[in-house]
Each structure stands twice: as structure tokens, then as C-alpha cells.
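Lecture notes, unit on protein representations.

Consider one protein chain, 166 amino acids long.
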Amino acid sequence: MAKNYKVTTIKDKLTKFQEYTDLAKGITQGAVDLSKEDRFSNKDLGQRSPEAQKAMELYSYYKTEGAAALERGDITGEQFNYLKGKAGSGTHLSHYVDDERFQGLNQAAFNISNFGYQLKQTLMDGQSVKKMVTDLYQQGRGANDKTPLLSAELEINNLKAQNKKP
């Protein structure tokens, strides 16, 4: 019985090497950006690369649209947290760890960075431990969603549809 051998070309190996090189660069840049003053701000204080700032602004757009939907009563607080997790993983964090090529690592990186942010909110800004755990769980569900991130409008419409009673 003949064995099936996978033929790997030099081009395949170079492509894989480039993917991991990009991953290493992204993780390194993410670590550098975490040390900056504006790490949690969507404002451009000139400390991020233009690409990182664009990713942060896109995340902020999802968050702003979600907050408006929450205020209108279109979505629940739990759904808003879910949206923040999915959008944060698919926009801002994906700038550093590509969520298409490294989905599991992207999700893990999001959950770790979100834990750091929630811990800061609890220790420095007075957020309750219960709220921290709730936010981590609900936002983690969004980050761990394997479906592609759609436009903010479509994501919110999908969440609204879940609230309609049959």
C-alpha cells in the first residue's frame, strides 16, 4: 500500500515563514503599544502607527454604534459586551494578531489583554469584581465567536433580531 506524501514547495515554506514573521512583528508591536500612554484611548495622540490608529478607530466605531443601539433599547447590555468583544478581536487586536490566519491566538491574546484592561478598571477606576467577571465572560464570548465580523449595522441588526419575540 502506497503512502500519501504531502509535497511542500519552497514557495509554501516561504509563505508559512512570512506568516510567522508577520505574527512575531505583530506581537512585538502590540507589546510596544501596550506600554504607551494612549493604549486604551481611541484618540490619536500620535503614539500609534497609522495602521494601528485606523484599527482602533474602527473598533471605536463599532463600540459607538453599539452604545447607541443599547441606549435606544435595540440590544441588551450583554449583547453590547458581546459586540465589543467580537469587534475588538476582529479590528484592533487583529491588527497585531491576524484573526484569519491565527484565530485561536487572536482569541487568546484578546482575552488576556481584556483581562488586563478589566483588572485596571477594577483596581484603579472602582469597577466591581462582579462587573469585571461579567464583562470578561460576555466580551470573551464575542471574541471567541468564529463567524466573520460583519459591518457594525449588520452585527447590531443580527443582535436585535435575537430580541424579537416570536
